[in-house]
Write the structure tokens for this entry.
Amino acid sequence: MRLWSLDPALLDRQGLVACWREALLAQAVLLGRTAGYTAHPQLERFTAHPDPVAAISSYLHGVRDEATRRGYQFDAERISRPLDRSTRDVRRIVVTTGQLDLERQHLLRKVAVRSPEHRSGLASTGTPAAHPLFVAVPGDVASWERVVA
């Protein structure tokens, strides 16, 4: 499961679709609809949120907004909470600049194989933009991240 902290606009087509599917799985876990993945480290920041379901709903709406911008049709009915005040004004989750940088490098490796034309938009300097649910702060890679050497 990869719930990107990066702005969905940075994801290639395959990454955006996979992010949607994996966030729907995360939503099912947070709603108690599946026994699997309940201890997945990617979920820690959502389970620590005061309203985990509102947070994952907000995350899914952000992914869906990008998909819509690209002309894809991701079904908003699959999101447990509609886009309203409770999901639009949900408390943002902190993500570190180190985490965003690590994710950009991870995404660069993935797109090098499946979407090489997408690399140019990711190779810029500076901290990459975060998903609208997140607010970036200076710091190292997140403690929940499982870095593979």
In short: The chain has one domain: 8-137.
